[in-house]
Amino acid sequence: MEKIRSEFPVIRKGIYANTAVYGPMYDSLLDWRQEHDLDFLLHGSAMRERSLKILSNTRSTVGEFFNCKQENVALVSNFSTGLNLLLEGLQPKTRVLLLENDYPSVNWSFENRDFDISYLKMDIDIEERIQETIRANTIEVLALSMVQWLDGFLMDTDFFKELKKAHPNIIIMADGTQFCGTRTFDFANSGIDVLGASAYKWLLAGYGNGFMLFSNAVQERFAVRSIGFNAANGDLSKKDSIRFAKKMEPGHLSCLNFGSLKFSLDFMSNIGMDKITAHNKSLSIKAKQEFAALGLLEQGILKRKGHSTIFNIKGDAAVFKTLLENDVLCAQRGNGIRVSFHFYNTQDEIDEIVRIVKTVR
To answer: Is residue 335 within 8 Å of 360, Cβ to Cβ?
Structure first.
């Protein structure tokens, strides 16, 4: 991974433990973006055909990366926008199950509309309690984050397949912003009906790009009302025959932003998502062991079998200040300090964070 680490100038300044806030820029992507803008500078509107090809290729690459049919891939500027567009097509009074303290863009999008909403508190046995709640109530939509933004709580991905098998009519909607790019994921065989993500975090694609993936079942349950000339690919005759996913793309899209998404997916594929998955798993195991030994983790995290690479460790403003002064880039979240690790991080960096924390305990 050392050669890959050299792609990221920011990690030369210290320990970058903040991908959960923003995925860093890397040299190869910067080169591609500069070349793209130079072409636009020199050729102007002659870039149009190339732009359309970039967007089409991005949909294909997203579909291949996550195993989703290309026609069921929508390119959106960010997860929040995509979710709000989609929910305009969901019937009022739909019975929805959410998680307490989930990412605001997930819960607020439902709460701001006329749905019948129930909530579950996050806990070690959340999957079991979701199943019990759905069995006891006529829940039509389950919506949650794959990884919780505050503490890195990771949902059991096999759970969704089991849930869908037991309740084939339920629509499962997931925010993958803190998940996609951290490990391999097979959408078509996941049991999830809608997976959306902003790509500026773990997919390293910068701001202004994201995607929504849809199962075939979604088209029967949502009547998406958004429309625009771009959705019809600039064809006046196609107004009444726009496919479902394209309705999520009513206006023109940035080929720079979405080209960056394609470039980053190719970049990670060339590294090997199996390698990234294995490396991130080892970081997660190492961090959990070390932080647990210092008593820095909540019991609900300790008792879970699996976890993401995001951790919220116990620490006050003094601990946070000490980490920053020692060039550890992290964030205060909730009542603790959130650190997050990706494939360019090392186990030695986790040891260094532990050493620093010990100096102020």
So the answer is: no
Only one residue has tokens 């579950």, namely: 120
- Token pair, residue 227, equals 């429309």
- Provide the token pair at 351: 């040891």
Q: How many other CB atoms are there within 10 angstroms of residue 296's CB atom?
A: 23
Sign for the CA dihedral angle at 350, 353, 359, 361 comes to negative
* Tokens 């932080």 sit on residue: 291
Q: Which of 291, 302, 292 lies closest to 356, judged by CA?
A: 291
Q: At the topology level of CATH, where does 31-270 sit?
A: Aspartate Aminotransferase; domain 2 (3.40.640)
Distance CA 198, CA 176 (A): 8
pLDDT tens for each residue of 174-224: 999 999 999 999 999 999 999 999 999 999 999 999 999 999 999 989 999
Give the contacts of 32 (CB within 8 A, at least 6 positions apart): 259, 260, 263
List Cα–Cα distances, 114 to 117, 142, 316, in angstroms: 9, 16, 39
CA atoms of 214 and 244, how far apart (whole Å): 9
Alpha helices (H) along the chain: 2-5, 27-43, 48-66, 79-87, 104-111, 126-136, 157-166, 218-221, 255-271, 273-293, 299-302, 317-325, 347-358
Alpha-carbon distances, residue 153 vs 13, 28, 132, 145, 357 (angstroms): 29, 32, 20, 9, 22
User: Distance from CA of residue 355 to its chain's centroid?
Assistant: 30
Where does the chain hold its CATH 3.40.640.10 domain(s)?
31-270
Give the CATH H-level superfamily of domain 2-25+272-358.
Aspartate Aminotransferase, domain 1 (3.90.1150.10)
**272-320, pLDDT tens digit by residue?**
999 999 999 999 999 999 999 999 999 989 999 899 999 999 999 999 9
